[in-house]
Amino acid sequence: MGLGLHVLLKNIPHFSMGLDQLFHECLGFGWAGMSMVVNYVYSCGYGRLPTPRDAQFYKDHVPHRAQFHADRLADRTANDPQRAKEIVFEQFSELERLLEKQEWLVGDQYSLADVAWFPNTIILRQLGYSFKSLPRVNDWIARIEAREAYKTGIQSRFLKVPNWLIRLSTRLLRQFGGRR
């Protein structure tokens, strides 16, 4: 059994603590830090407001997301691209420090923590964020991308669209698509 799964199973009796606390205990910082990607996406001009149906779903079931969009509309959040980049760097610097001591986020075996954090790197790189200043994170990304599961389960499903075109189309969609 992988170390990450062992840590999760060990904590199941206390699962009521919530994912944020569980990730904080496993990694030293919380799951909520991963919301920095949402802030980055919107601060840099790529995100859109939810559809009315999605907005209602957020209001009913994901109140923090509903509050985020209300704050964004009032220009209280997601309005500073430089600060958003700093937050992303701060969060991934924490991963960099972890990876100084171990191969994967929760130890020496690939775990749920790696699976949970990795998609953030895909989104951020598609939107032009570079991890060059974080060599251990870069190496971690390369090791995940070298895994057969990544190649067959994720990479094979990507459209062959350059990242610059993804960035341009998302900005155009936000600008002219109606839900800024």
Descriptive tags:
180 residues, 10 helices, disordered N terminus, 64% helix, mainly alpha
Overall mean pLDDT: 79
Count of individual beta strands: 0
* Element-level helix/strand string: HHHHHHHHHH
Gross morphology is globular
Protein architecture, described:
The protein has 180 residues and is mainly α. It is built from ten helices and no strands. Helix 3 (36-43) runs antiparallel to helix 6 (81-101), helix 4 packs across helix 5 (63-73) and helix 6 (81-101) packs across helix 8 (135-146). The longest helix is centred in the middle third of the chain and has 21 residues, at 81-101.
Summarize the structure.
This protein has 180 residues and is mainly alpha-helical. Helices cover 64% and strands 0% of the residues. The longest helix has 21 residues, at 81-101.
